[in-house]
Amino acid sequence: MGDYIKSIDPTTAEKSLQEPKVKRRYTCRSRKNGDLYPKRLLAASTDALQSGIQFGSNKYLAMCGLAGIMSCGITHTGMVPLDVVKCRIQVDPSTYKNTLNGFRVTIANDGIRGLAIGWAPTAIGYSLQGMHKFGLYEFFKIKYCAILGEEWSYKYRTSVYLAASASAEFFADIALSPMEAAKVRMQTQPGFAGTLREALPKMWAQEGFHSFYKGLPPLWFRQIPYTMMKFACFERTVEALYKYVLSKPRDDCSKPQQLVVTFVGGYIAGVFCVLVSHPADSIVSKLNQDAGSTMVQAARSLGMSGLWKGFVPRVAMIGTLTALQWFIYDSFKIYFLMPRPPPPEMPISMKAKLESDERKRK
Which family, according to the similarity comment (predicted)? Predict the structure, then answer.
């Protein structure tokens, strides 16, 4: 791991800019009350030096948050038609029997415009969620690595990914919940509201502040496992693709090759995301459709088979969605010359210990 704030000597940085083809390594460090943690060396990109964005700085984290807005806001809004059908299948399977039938019935009842219901709360809500999800993931990953140190953060890197993503999603869902509640009501309750401006006052009049956050616990139940899988599976998949498929370091690959790896890793991660989060997604849809219901009541009403309704369209939606999110996120970093630490490698100190143990056994 070792994703820490880089300490770069100015004279060395200037020399590095004059030699763009030469890869140099700089000591990475983090600070806590002035103390330095054990570090590992990361390859420092000349692009990052040119951009002036220091890894782990407030500017870096803010840019990651902006990249998250782009990746989540654009992709989720583009998936609204499929999301409308998916939500209606979950809450009314007798009318919306499958994905194709769902599109037909929706168009027949509401016209083509019916497929765009809820686009505004989707765009706003998931932009806010993306900002917190990606920005805070980078923040918590750096902090947890600093706590564990160089060797442990590498050895338990999957746990770091899981912990950082869970922490980030906890706060991201607080930002998402009001817009998600409005979106689901608009999509699943015919005639409830045609616009977000109409939906929010109605929700406040019916249930007050509670209406915006009553779906937060099941939203956490859906999104936290989803995001943990999304980030951890992506990180390890990308690591495996470079190691076993391309068989070369990321920095030896062209930018288009790197983005292809990002897209493939994102799609694989997306499929696993659906497996761990779909039952909770069904509960969220049912809960926001039925005013006054609880999480347990919604689960009982759906039953075991109902919890998995809409699974196929959600696989298509989330697989593509996750792949595009990672693609946009990585493209944003490349375009703005942001630091992009490569997949983690075993620290030199760990390699030395393993070699020493091997010699002792012989």
Answer: Belongs to the mitochondrial carrier (TC 2.A.29) family.
